[in-house]
Design a protein that fits this description.
By secondary structure, this protein is an alpha/beta fold. It is about 60% helix and about 5% strand. It has a 5-stranded parallel β-sheet with strand order 2-3-4-1-5, sandwiched between helices. α13 runs antiparallel to α14. It is elongated. About 30% of the residues are buried. About 5% of the residues have low confidence.
Length: about 400
C-alpha cells in the first residue's frame, strides 16, 4: 500500500505551518516559560480536525530534541494502564537518554469513557509533572473540560482557509506529477471545510482513478463515501463514528455494503475480523426485519452495529493508505442489470397471459417455459407466440 499523503506531506518544520501563526507563537512562549520554571500549567490546543494540533507538538519536540510520549485511546486500554503510563512518563526520567520530554495527551475527551476518576487523575498529574503536558481537543468549551481550562494555557487553532488548502493541494499535485482538473481541486478544498487531512485523503483517493476526466461527478460521489468510511473507521470515539454514518451523503444500505466489502483491509487479525463480521451479520438481520415488518425503530440498532463492526476504538488502525474497494455485490448486480430487466419483461408477459402473479410465474411457470423453449419444436414456437415474446426474449430463454 502507498504511504498516507497526510503523513508524507505533513509539516516537518515550523515554517511549513500555514494559517496558525498566532497558535505557533503562543505555544513557543508557553513552552519556554515551562522549561524555565515560570509556569506549571499544561497547554490545551483546541480547534477543528486537520488544523495541525498534534503535528505542531511533534515538530517542536523534534526541533528542540525532546522525547515525545503520546497518550491516546488507541494506546490505552483501561484506567489502570492510563495511570501507570502517566506516572512513569511525568515523574520518572529516561535512564538511556538525557533528552527532555513532552507528554502529549491526544483527544483528551476520548479518555473519559475509561472511568469517572480519569479527569481528576489527569488534573492532579498536571500539577505534579516534571515535564510539560499538552492536551488536544476539538471543543475546549465542552463542560467536561472545565477543570482543564483552569489548569491550562488555552491555545486556539483556527480552521484553515480554503485558499490555503487549495495551495497545498496544488503543491502535492505538482510533486506527485498528477493530472487533475483544476475545478475538481477547488471542489475538494471547498468540501474539506478547512480540514487539510480530509482534503489530502480525498486527493489521494481521487488519484486511484488515474485521472479519467469523463467521470468526475461519479468520483465526487465516491470521494464522499471514502471520507465517510475513513471517519467511521478511524474515529477514536463511538459517538464520532456514529455521527459519520448518520451524516453520510449516501443511504445506510449502501454504506453497509461499502463497510462489509472493505473491513478486511482494516482488521488483519482473525479474531478482530471475526468480531467485526459478527456485528455486521447482526446488522444485516435487523435490516431484514425492517424490510419485512416496516419497523423503522430498529434502524438505530443497525447504526450501532455498523459502528461496532467498523470502529474498535481501542485497536491501533493501520497508518497506510487504504483504497476502498467498490462493493462487489453492487458491481455484480450492475453487470446483471440487463439480464434482470429482460427476465422482468418476460415475467410480466407470462403473468398477464396466465393470470398469475409475477412471483408465481417466476417460481412455477418460467422453469417449464425455459425447458420447452430450449428444444426446437412447433409446441415451443406456438408457446412463444402465445406469450408474445419477441426475438430477443426468445433467444434469452434458449440461452438460459
Amino acid at each position: 500500500m502507498d504511504e498516507l499523503w497526510t503523513e508524507k506531506y505533513k509539516p516537518r518544520k515550523l515554517n511549513e505551518f500555514i494559517d496558525q501563526k498566532k497558535a505557533l507563537e503562543k505555544f513557543k512562549v508557553w513552552l519556554k516559560k515551562y522549561i524555565k520554571g515560570e509556569t506549571r500549567k499544561a497547554a490545551l490546543l483546541y480547534g477543528p480536525s486537520g488544523t495541525g494540533k498534534t503535528t505542531l507538538v511533534e515538530v517542536i519536540a523534534n526541533e528542540l530534541g525532546l522525547e515525545i510520549v503520546v497518550i491516546d485511546q488507541a494506546r490505552i486500554k483501561d484506567a489502570g494502564m492510563l495511570k501507570e503510563k502517566l506516572e512513569n512518563t511525568t515523574k520518572l526520567g529516561n535512564l538511556f537518554s538525557t533528552k527532555g520530554r513532552i507528554v502529549l495527551i491526544d483527544e483528551i475527551e476520548s479518555l473519559y469513557n475509561l472511568g469517572a476518576g480519569v479527569v481528576n487523575f489527569i488534573a492532579k498529574t498536571i500539577n505534579n509533572s516534571r515535564y510539560p503536558i499538552v492536551l488536544t481537543t476539538n471543543d475546549a468549551y465542552s463542560p467536561k473540560l472545565r477543570v482543564f481550562r483552569e489548569k491550562c494555557e488555552m491555545i486556539p487553532f483556527k480552521r484553515l482557509s480554503k485558499t490555503s488548502v487549495l495551495t497545498i493541494l496544488k503543491r502535492v499535485v505538482q510533486l506527485e506529477k498528477l493530472k487533475i482538473d483544476a475545478n475538481l481541486l477547488k471542489r475538494i478544498s471547498l468540501n474539506s471545510n478547512g480540514d487539510l487531512r480530509a482534503a489530502l485523503n480525498d486527493l489521494q483517493s481521487l488519484n486511484e482513478f488515474k485521472g479519467e476526466a469523463a467521470r468526475i461527478d461519479q468520483r465526487n460521489i465516491e470521494l464522499d463515501v471514502f471520507r465517510a468510511i475513513s471517519k467511521i473507521i478511524y474515529s477514536k470515539k463511538f459517538i464520532d463514528a456514529l455521527s459519520a454514518i448518520e451524516g453520510a451523503d449516501i443511504n445506510y444500505e449502501l454504506m453497509f455494503r461499502w463497510l462489509v466489502e472493505n473491513i478486511d483491509q482494516v482488521y488483519s487479525k482473525p479474531r478482530e475480523l471475526a468480531e467485526a463480521m459478527d456485528k455486521f451479520s447482526k446488522a444485516d438481520m435487523y435490516l431484514g426485519r425492517i424490510v419485512k415488518t416496516g419497523n423503522w425503530s430498529l434502524l438505530k440498532y443497525v447504526f450501532d452495529l455498523m459502528v461496532g463492526g467498523s470502529s474498535f476504538v481501542n485497536i491501533e488502525k493501520p497508518r497506510k493508505f487504504i483504497f476502498y474497494r467498490f462493493p462487489s455485490f453492487i458491481r455484480k448486480m450492475s453487470s446483471q442489470r440487463g439480464t434482470r430487466e429482460m427476465e422482468k419483461n418476460i415475467l410480466l408477459k407470462v403473468s398477464r397471459k396466465c393470470h398469475v402473479s409475477s412471483k408465481k410465474a417466476y417460481k412455477e411457470y418460467l422453469p417449464f417455459i425455459k425447458l420447452i423453449s430450449s428444444y426446437p419444436s412447433k409446441i415451443g414456437d406456438r408457446l412463444m407466440a402465445y406469450l408474445e415474446l419477441d426475438k430477443s426474449e426468445r433467444s434469452f430463454l434458449k440461452k438460459r
